[in-house]
Every structure is written in C-alpha cells, then in structure tokens.
C-alpha cells in the first residue's frame, strides 16, 4: 500500500540502525500525536502490515554538480514515500514531519547533531502519488477506495462497538476507520436510520454510503 524508500550514503547506518530506523518510520507515519486524530488501532495495525521500507545505499551520490558526498561529512538523506494519489495531498505534511522526526532520532542515536535536519536541507522527503489503477496486489489492480475497504473491512464490527460516551459534545466516531470527527467542522456527514454519522474523509463516507444504500448528493 505504502512504500518508503530511504537513500543514505554507504556506511552511515549499521544493519541494526537501518532496521530500527525502518521500523520507526512505519510507526511514526501511521500514528498521530493526537489520539482524536488517529484511526482505530486495528486499522493502524492493518495499514502497518501493508507498509514496506527499503533502505538503499547508492554507490554514487553527487550534490550540486560538485564532488560526491564525502562519507566524513554529516550524512544526507532522501526519502521517497509512494502512496495512492488520492491520499497524497492529505498525507504529505504529516509524512514530511514524521519521517524527518525518525531521521532526527537516528542522528541522535548516532551521536550527530540532529537539529541540522531542521535547519539545513540535508533530508528531503518526496511524497509520490500512484495514479488510480496503477497499484495492485493479489493479482488485481487496487484503487485507493479498494485499499481503504481492504484495511477496514475486518474491523468494522469492532469499530461499531467503540464507545463515544467519553467524547466531547459534537464529536462522533467515523464508522469506517474509527477516527474521531468533529461534526461542527466537517460537511462529510450522512444520516442513516435516524443517526447522524461523520467521516474523516470522502472515501470513508463513500464506503459507508455504498454498504448501506445511502445516496450521495454531494
């Protein structure tokens, strides 16, 4: 579903560091600092299971047409995140922030100055959207809506049992992905059998509408 490729000069990270950084990238990308902005834990687990990290060490790395990057200099990083194009815009700012944070932690562990990654362009994050119909698994193309349905279907009953009693007034749980939604700030709503539902994005709303036969007027 999501592919993270990390390019780093040869020898900068030992094998154990590469593995820890890869795991941390997945963890940070798939979670939020705000509990009310996170999907249901079961959905996050499913998303993490479909996220892959590849670490590359290019034999040649030249910046600005000058000499190749010196291994003795503070290392440069390039991270490419490939995801369905329909998700790219919403996830880009989060991906840049969280993946930079993972690199900052790796720099701290290595005993280097981590703050340079926030003051100098030594870490670039590229978020790339894959057009609909160009992503596939299990022998068939998978659009962004198909992927979201695949991630949430096994957990829909669990999400339906999530209690909203502790939520502030005006907030509800997205019945598809389990995220908390503020009814006062979203127009992504549907009424079904006398209950008003809110959704974190249009795709969750579309899945719910299709499954319950609710017509979408907008």
Architecture overview:
- This protein has 218 residues and is of the alpha/beta class.
- It has two domains: 2-137, 2-Layer Sandwich (Macrophage Migration Inhibitory Factor), CATH 3.30.429; 162-212, no CATH class.
- The chain contains seven helices and ten strands.
- It has helices at 15-30, 41-49, 85-109, 116-119, 144-152, 156-160, 202-212; strands at 2-7, 51-56, 77-84, 123-130, 136-137, 140-141, 171-173, 180-182, 189-192, 195-198.
- The protein has a four-stranded mixed sheet with strand order 2-1-3-4. A two-stranded antiparallel sheet has the order 5-6. A two-stranded antiparallel sheet has the order 7-8.
- Strand 9 and strand 10 form a beta hairpin.
- The chain is elongated and about 65 Å long.
- The mean pLDDT is 91.
Could you give the topology of this structure?
Blueprint: E1 2-7, H1 15-30, H2 41-49, E2 51-56, E3 77-84, H3 85-109, H4 116-119, E4 123-130, E5 136-137, E6 140-141, H5 144-152, H6 156-160, E7 171-173, E8 180-182, E9 189-192, E10 195-198, H7 202-212
Helix pairs in contact: 1-3
């Amino acid at each position: 579903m999501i592919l993270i490729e990390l390019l780093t000069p040869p020898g900068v990270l030992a094998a154990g560091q590469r593995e820890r950084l890869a795991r941390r990238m997945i963890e940070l990308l798939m979670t939020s600092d705000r509990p009310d902005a996170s999907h249901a834990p079961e959905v996050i687990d499913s998303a993490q299971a479909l996220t892959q990290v590849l670490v590359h060490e290019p034999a040649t790395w030249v910046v600005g047409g000058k000499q190749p990057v010196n291994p003795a200099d503070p290392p440069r990083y390039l991270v490419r995140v490939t995801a369905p194009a329909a998700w790219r815009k919403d996830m880009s700012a989060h991906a840049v922030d969280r993946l930079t944070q993972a690199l900052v932690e790796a720099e701290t562990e290595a005993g280097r100055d981590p703050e340079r990654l926030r003051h100098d362009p030594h870490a670039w994050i590229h978020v790339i959207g894959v057009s609909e119909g160009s992503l596939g698994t299990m022998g068939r193309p998978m659009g962004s809506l198909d992927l979201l349905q695949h991630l949430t279907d096994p957990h829909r009953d669990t999400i339906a049992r999530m209690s909203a009693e502790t939520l502030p007034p005006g907030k509800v749980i997205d019945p598809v992905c389990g995220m908390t939604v503020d009814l006062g700030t979203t127009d992504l709503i549907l009424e079904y059998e006398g209950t008003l539902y809110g959704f974190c994005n249009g795709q969750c709303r579309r899945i719910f509408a299709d499954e319950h036969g609710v017509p979408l007027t907008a």
